[in-house]
Amino acid sequence: MRGTDEQTGSLFSYQSPESMVPGDHPLRVIRSVVNAALERLSPEFSQLYSPYGRASIAPEKLLRALLVQAFFGVRSERQLMEQVRYNMLFRWFIGLSMDAPVWDVTVFTKNRDRLLEGEIARSFLLAVLADPKVKPLLSDEHFSVDGTIIEAWASMKSFQPKDGSDSLPSDPGRNGERDFRGEKRSNETHQSVTDPEARLYRKSDGQPAKLCYLGHVLMENRNGLIVDAELTQATGWAERAAAEAMVETTAPAGGVTLGADKGYDTKAHVANLRDLGVTPHVAQNQKNRCSAIDGRTTRHPGYAISQCIRKRIEEPFGWMKAAGGFRQTKHRGRERVGWMFTLRAAAYNLIRLPNLLATT
């Protein structure tokens, strides 16, 4: 018998968002790790808020909402607030009841910006790694490093001379035509009026130059989890400087190995790593010059292992850009973009944990 297409409503509902989430859903494992990390961050949250005045959005709920945005690739916070209204999975993960009102997007954004003051994103990344269930998954001896381009939220038309001598577009209007042929532009003479901290940069020869930032991650080699993340302005030496800073922070006593591609093969960088007590497992770049890595390093079996495993560092970059929606940032300014990049790195670790914890 064919059923009838009738919409029936009930006067009362006794279901909660949690009852609608399957017991074996991977977000249940993730949420338990997230809640434990947020509990460890509670003293830091208290320092960011005054003990007096009206209560704001709980920082724990803010971070859970931003993680949901990263997990499901929600492209904007306005769309996130819209989906929280009717998505029970989102409500359960964030910690909202069935009939709890959803925040206005402007209020949500202003409260989110408060978390920038305390570098909460990096603290959250480290709090997740400090979980007793997560710690055994990490290597404390072998690491890999790499960087990637994060496109800025600015168009090439915004890249104008610093002295204000730019000519007006020939075609009037909101987005008029502009011919850049034959015009020499560089970061020394030009600057984006939309995002002044973005820099014109290209990753390699034959690639187009774009207004962008550089995102860097430090990965441990046991399970490929990110242990540190940093965002810098796009320069030719930023990757090597960020690698030295991150490995010095993560392993201040040295005695570790660091795998990297041939872009890190310079005499100065290799010497700096050795001064830090780090063994540089850097790929040899023998094009038009001698490599700074010689047989003293390459003869060891660990060098070949590091070169094989370091390629896994492309996996978090791929996830952050494709699934996490961070190929081009929707934010402006190095501080805000860097905060969001670090939170995406923490989100990548979290989506890996259900499978990793199931095998332990």
Explain this structure:
There is one protein chain. The protein has about 350 residues and is α/β, with parallel strands linked by helices. Among the domains are: about 15-120, no CATH class; about 140-150 and about 210-335, Nucleotidyltransferase, domain 5 (2-Layer Sandwich). Helix content is about 40%, strand content about 15%. The protein has 13 helices and 8 strands. Strands 1, 4, 5, 6, 7 and 8 form a 6-stranded mixed β-sheet that branches. Strands 2-3 form a two-stranded antiparallel ribbon. Helix 9 links the parallel strand 7 (about 255-260) and strand 8.
Number of helices: 13
> Ranges with pLDDT <50 over ≥5 residues?
none
Q: Oligomeric form of this entry?
A: single chain
CA-based gyration radius: 24 Å
CATH superfamily of the domain at 139-152 and 212-334: Ribonuclease H-like superfamily/Ribonuclease H
CATH-scheme architecture of the domain at 139-152 and 212-334: 2-Layer Sandwich
Number of strands: 8
Order of helices and strands: HHHHHHHEEEEEEHEHEHHHH
Classification by helices and strands: alpha/beta
The helix content is 25-40%
**CATH domain fold name of the domain at 139-152 and 212-334:** Nucleotidyltransferase, domain 5
**What general form does the structure show?**
globular
Q: Tell me the span between the first and last alpha carbons.
A: 50 Å
Mean pLDDT: 89
Main pleated-sheet profile: 6 strands, mixed
Proportion of residues in β-strands: 5-15%
CATH class of the domain at 139-152 and 212-334: Alpha Beta
GO biological process, one term: DNA transposition
Keywords: DNA recombination, DNA-binding, Transposition
Domain Transposase IS4-like: 203-350
Biased composition (Basic and acidic residues): 174-188
